[in-house]
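Need residues for this backbone.
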């Protein structure tokens, strides 16, 4: 697989294919952070199930990664359908092997003041950003328990910690994801399963452009930087130090404390 897309520090983490024994599921894998995460995990040797709604985009990505030497499988998934979510876990286990890594990255943002926010939009945001990760975590846990280890990484956001005007539904969903992750981490610790959350600020994705058009694009965090941090968490999994939650901000932004 071509490594030119990876910064040197990420290429160094991926060297030697340290994830060669891992099977990963990445949601929202067709673009943005999810695409970078899938590329990085495949580069590090993991077998990767690519999940997103767009079958054509996933198939193009599967072809590109396969031609580069990665072992990947495109699984079109609508995270608003419970049956699609459970099927994602089952197809991965049957076709690739029991999943040991889950990256809940997919998300949607719908914005507006809460006083006029449509209930149907609230339900969609909660379904994709909070309900779907819960269902998918529940679906992969039996496989991880059978293997005796596993890593779940939930992409929250700065809005999982803070609140921003016109982002009430998105913030509520990400706060819910954070709360679920905190409890899940305790409930599965004895099973050898770790749960991490990442809370990045503005990342150079379509969602960030739409939600924060005031930010300068050249100052946004790059999706590959988030992927590199995820790879770092996976590379250091067997150490004695554990990072439960990462707060990640733009270098040009103000410190969180």
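Answer:
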């Amino acid at each position: 697989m071509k490594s030119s897309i990876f910064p040197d520090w990420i290429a160094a983490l991926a060297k030697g294919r340290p994830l060669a024994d891992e099977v990963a599921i990445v949601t929202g894998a067709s673009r943005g952070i999810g695409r970078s995460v899938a590329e990085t995990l495949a580069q590090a040797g993991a077998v990767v199930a690519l999940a997103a709604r767009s079958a054509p985009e996933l198939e193009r990505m599967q072809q590109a990664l396969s031609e580069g030497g990665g072992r990947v499988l495109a699984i079109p998934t609508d995270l608003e359908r419970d049956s699609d979510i459970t099927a994602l876990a089952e197809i991965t286990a049957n076709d690739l092997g029991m999943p040991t890594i889950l990256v809940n990255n997919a998300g949607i943002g719908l914005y507006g003041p809460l006083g006029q926010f449509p209930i149907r939009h609230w339900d969609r945001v909660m379904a994709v950003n909070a309900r779907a990760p819960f269902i998918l975590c529940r679906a992969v846990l039996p496989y991880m328990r059978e293997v005796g280890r596993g890593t779940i990484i939930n992409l929250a956001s700065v809005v999982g910690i803070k609140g921003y005007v016109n982002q009430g539904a998105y913030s509520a969903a990400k706060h819910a994801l954070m709360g679920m992750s905190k409890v899940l981490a305790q409930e599965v610790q004895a099973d050898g399963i770790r749960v991490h959350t990442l809370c990045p600020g503005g990342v150079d994705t379509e969602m960030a452009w739409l939600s924060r058009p005031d930010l300068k694009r050249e100052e946004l965090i790059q999706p590959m930087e988030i992927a590199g941090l995820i790879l770092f968490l996976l590379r250091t999994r067997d150490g004695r130090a554990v990072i439960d939650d990462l707060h990640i901000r733009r270098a040009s932004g103000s410190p969180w404390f």
